Amino acid sequence: EPGSTDNPNDSQECLTNSCMDQIVDCMEDEECSAWMDCIRGCESDDMKCQTICVMFHQSDLADDITVCMTESECIDLDYPNIPDCPPAQDDLSDLSGLDGTWWMTAYTSEPHIFDVECQRFDFTKRSSSLVEVSFTTPLTVNGQERMCATEGTFELLEDGSVKVAYNSFVEYYELWRIIHKSENTLFAHLCFTAGPHMKDYGSLVLSRVPLAELDYAEYEALDEAVAKTTGVGVEGLLANANESCTNQ
């Protein structure tokens, strides 16, 4: 997934010299070549378009190109227009109780976050510090609709943050800082990590049930945590427009 480069022509020459075998294989594969076309269409998009391209056109051959161009230092996986990720300001929560099906029900509206409706997370606990996740979301690209899915892991680190790695995204991972968690809600701040760079990815709320169905005490605790971190309450976040997807 391309980041920044001082001279795009230098980057292209590096790719041609270092990764031609992978590029040829990609061009001969329908899914991988579609990924390449999708990436080219992102132009100056900071992150969101490229993320959607990877999620929609999952391909081991595309992964091979990404690994090659990063190992060959053809590109710098930096996103200079996105601010650095701020350090944690609160006590962080752990992975206890994170199992079953959760939905993204509210999120910040930064243009670079993957703000697609009906994101579903199916968690399976493996240990006190490791949870497997199956992530699915409906996507439409160039008029084609798919229910896109990928597997991954949530791993609790020693500093209390959670390393989130998905199989369909190579050469980067996320760091989630779980700021608040209750029986039915989770509020976290996300960092995008690629190489030496850590960029702000926004905040989100996961919930087992629609927020309107939470009891008063649980909703108030969530609202207080969100307001303390973002300066606005839950209503101040960009709410998912289609809560009918929750618990389907």
Question: Could you explain how this protein is built, in words?
Answer:
The protein is of the alpha+beta class and 248 residues long. It has six helices and nine strands. It has an eight-stranded antiparallel β-barrel. Strand 7 and strand 8 form a beta hairpin. It is globular. The N terminus is likely disordered.
Short description:
With 248 residues, the chain is α+β, with helices and mostly antiparallel strands. It is built from six helices and nine strands; from the N terminus they run αααααββββββββαβ. Helices cover 27% and strands 31% of the residues.
Overall SS class: alpha+beta
Biggest sheet overview: 8 strands, antiparallel, barrel
What do the pLDDT scores average to?
A: 88
Shape: globular
Q: Count the DSSP helices.
A: 6
Distance between the termini: 32 Å
**Which sequence of SSEs, written as H and E, runs from N to C?**
HHHHHEEEEEEEEHE
User: What is the assembly state of the chains in this entry?
Assistant: single chain
Approximately how much beta-strand content do the residues carry? 25-35%
Integer-rounded radius of gyration: 19 Å
Kindly state the number of beta strands: 9
**In percent, how helical is the residue content?**
25-40%
The poorly predicted ranges are 1-5
Q: Write out the strand line-up for the largest beta sheet, numbering strands in chain order.
A: 1-2-3-4-5-6-7-8
